Amino acid sequence: AYAEAALAPVSGLLALPPEVSFVEAAALLVQGLTAYHVVHTVGRVEAGQTVLVHAAAGGVGLLAVQLAKAAGARVIGTVSGEAKAKLARDVGADEIIRYDHEDVAARVQALTQGRGVERVLDSVGASTWKASMEALAPFGHLVSYGNASGPPPHLEVDSLYAKSLTVSAYWLRTPTPPDVERRAREALLQEVLAKRLRMVVGLALPLSQAEEAHRRLEGRDTVGKVVLLGAE
């Protein structure tokens, strides 16, 4: 359900600097917080690591690519279509894998000289899970934060032993200490103001066209964030 007004606690509000529009803020504070926590709070991405970002031209994916790059990582992104590949490269992805006609795990191994990647950020789920696990280097860490293609298969703990892998999850609605959430919001705004984080709003439609927005999303015919606009 959608609404043009909502009650919210003061602790959940953020004063916007004049340089950031409400449309940009709408794109930043959901996808942005997800990307921040996936990259930093859960994924703990560090300089020198190689990170595989699935759906790298999506709303969270584009931000995760930029945040991982800002942390000093080498970023490999998966996309479908050349337009999405170009967009992911434009925001900083070092390498692109076209999952619509490439074997993702095999391509990762080729790009890393057989080592694999230290981190996989996976919002896709069922269709990418096998490749994600195969792409990980020993002691690698997969962060699952969405199931766009359906839930991943049941995880057998024994399957983690051979490479000493870690699998974690992130959900935006997980209760988070207010100071942690405040620091995350402030860090995101600072990245935007410093022009190190580029917001990509791929589609903005009036609330009356919500059905069209959903049709485009379900058809994977969008890039970046889709924003619905209330009456001004």
Low-confidence stretches: none
Q: Name the CATH superfamily assignment.
A: Medium-chain alcohol dehydrogenases, catalytic domain
Number of structural domains: 1
The number of helical segments is 7
Classify the beta-strand content into a percent band: 15-25%
CATH topology: Quinone Oxidoreductase, Chain A, domain 1
**Distance, first to last CA:** 19 Å
Mean pLDDT: 93
Spatial arrangement of strands, main beta sheet = 3-2-1-4-5-6
DSSP summary, beta strand count: 8
SS content category: alpha/beta
- Tell me about the largest β-sheet: 6 strands, parallel
Q: What would you note in describing this structure?
A:
Helix 4 (104-111) packs parallel to helix 5. This protein has helices spanning 22-42, 59-70, 82-90, 104-111, 129-135, 178-193, 210-218; strands at residues 50-53, 74-79, 95-98, 117-122, 136-144, 166-169, 201-206, 225-229. The relative contact order is 0.16. Strands 3-2-1-4-5-6 form a six-stranded parallel beta sheet, with helices on both faces. A two-stranded parallel ribbon has the order 7-8. It starts with 21 loop residues before the first helix and ends with a strand. With 232 residues, the protein is of the alpha/beta class. It is built from seven helices and eight strands. The chain is globular. It has a single domain, classed as Quinone Oxidoreductase, Chain A, domain 1, CATH 3.90.180.10.
